[in-house]
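Lecture 7 notes: from sequence to structure.

We start with a single chain of 208 residues. Read the sequence below before looking at the structure.
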Amino acid sequence: MGTRRSGATRVGAGAARHRRVRAADGATGVPRALLAAAVATLLAPLVVVAWVVADVTGPSGASGAARPAAPAVPVAVALVRGWDERRSTALADGDAAALRALFAPGPRGDALAAADLALLAAYDARGLRVVGLGFQLVGVDVVTAHAGTTDRPATLVVAVRDRMPRAAVARGEVVVAHLPARAEARRVLRFERHGGDWLLAGSAAAPP
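Now the structure, written as tokens:
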């Protein structure tokens, strides 16, 4: 099992499906703390964790060892784009079960799921939804891929460059606030395959 590092590939915009909503007039009525929580949860990656370094360098710390080919970059692009779209839909629909189902079991996946679910609950308590969340992919590198074994799921680690041009907060069909766009950033995402689905198992700021 193993991988190769692919060259960066520019990709087009991958806008997530979102509801049609109309803008509201006047004050938003959305607490600033709630907007800040949305920005922190939706945009900010977790701190760099050990699995990023381990997956890039391998067990011995040497990155030049010969390894089988990783999945093609277009496959990784489709995976990341599809996952982002499903997350956007679950948030817009207020569907906690669908949102939790996007994250892999285990401490890292559980922590990521808990943050999203807490945000969803906080907004739902006020009759609000995050709508139109869309990440625009700029580039994707396949860092590592492992086929998996009988007691270990298949994994795929990708380095992503993306930006978030839009997202809004709505009450019913009315937009009451807009979340600030995020400039291009670099993330490392770890996916695990469970029951035929690729689920997010880790997210970190890309190491320099």
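The chain has a mean pLDDT of 76. Keep this in mind for problem set 3.
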